Every structure is written in C-alpha cells, then in structure tokens.
Amino acid sequence: MTGMSSVDLQLPLLPPVPVAGCGVCAVLAERRTAHLRVGDFSGATDRSVQIRRHDAGHGGE
Description:
The chain has helices at 23-37, 41-55. It is mainly alpha-helical. It is elongated, with a radius of gyration of 16 Å. The termini are far apart.
C-alpha cells in the first residue's frame, strides 16, 4: 500500500508518585484512586497529569 505512513507508538507513562508530605499531591492521589475505583480512567488520567505538573514545583521534570 502506498501513501500510508507508519505510526510511532510509545509506551504509556508510569503514574506519577505523589511527594510525601505534600497536601496537594495527597488530595490529587486520593482523587485518582477514587476515579480508578469506579472505572473512570479519563478522570484518573487527568489527576495523574495534575500530579505530574504539580510535581514540577517539587523539583521534578
């Protein structure tokens, strides 16, 4: 087949680890767990993104 391009699939990111002692991280992690309990993977992913972005304030990437 001509004209088709390849797809570059990457491995999914590991869930970010909340920083111990940080209240914001703890709340986001609790919410992520609650989303996972009810099968809301979109909500859980959103909380992971928030943890990852918030972690930058802790010296993360």
